[in-house]
Design brief:
alpha+beta, Ribosomal Protein S5, domain 2, Alpha-Beta Plaits, 2 domains, five-stranded mixed sheet, 10 helices, 12 strands
Length: 282
Amino acid sequence: MVTNPNVKINLGLNVLRKRPDGYHDLDTLFVPYFDIHDTLEIISGDDYSRTSAALFAKYGQNVAQGISEDGKLMITIAKADGVDWDPLKDLCARAYALLDADFKLPAVKIFLEKTSPVGAGLGGGSADAAFTLKMLSEMFSLGLSEAQLASYAARLGSDCAFFVYNRPMFGTGRGEILEEYPVPALEKYHLEVVIPEGVSVSTADAYKGIVPAEPALALKDALMRPVEDWKECVVNDFETTVFEKYPSLKAVKESLYATGAVYASMSGSGSALYGLYSPTEE
């Protein structure tokens, strides 16, 4: 089974308050973005796939592979500039372990071609995890509902649950409490995502200096205003700390407005930015 886990953007991201558990309560709108994605294949452990050989042929030494102690999971990850993490600690491997603990899954082989950026605030790793959960449920007829899958996903990461639904969802809590929240105005605009080269932002660093506060206008109310007004009221609170450390990202945002974007923002804790453009008149 092969699929393409896509990324997301955040339309607004308000850091409201710090919680006793050390996390922060957020308000944000998650929106899927399908033009950037990874390639994920999962097969039964006894099956043969040409994918492993193809990945090694294409990426050479930039491929990492791991086999779990019990031999039930083999995971292969390829990335153009190398894989600098343990494949067995990848969110895909953790997703398998989570379901295996409850359902005693058969052995599998996971192949991940990682083309979405890391440290860009687009949630590529979270998408891989959520898609792994969905694929395993389908492959082995677990019959898990979206709500059940989202519950598992939330245990892997704050924005993992969104990718189970993969449609516009308003996130609260750590981002794992979701409600469907379509924004019809978005259908009229063209979305362009920019990934600045050489800048990877740590979420932990992005939180340094953040002063949680309720916004003057609640995000849900701000999103109901015309898109042309969003520049003044739909805010990503991480821009304050991230732009201070990476002025080049602020310059990218300004360039998006200079090229005609109606609204521009950083996604998540960065470094990716995006602009919404009015459709070209014919």
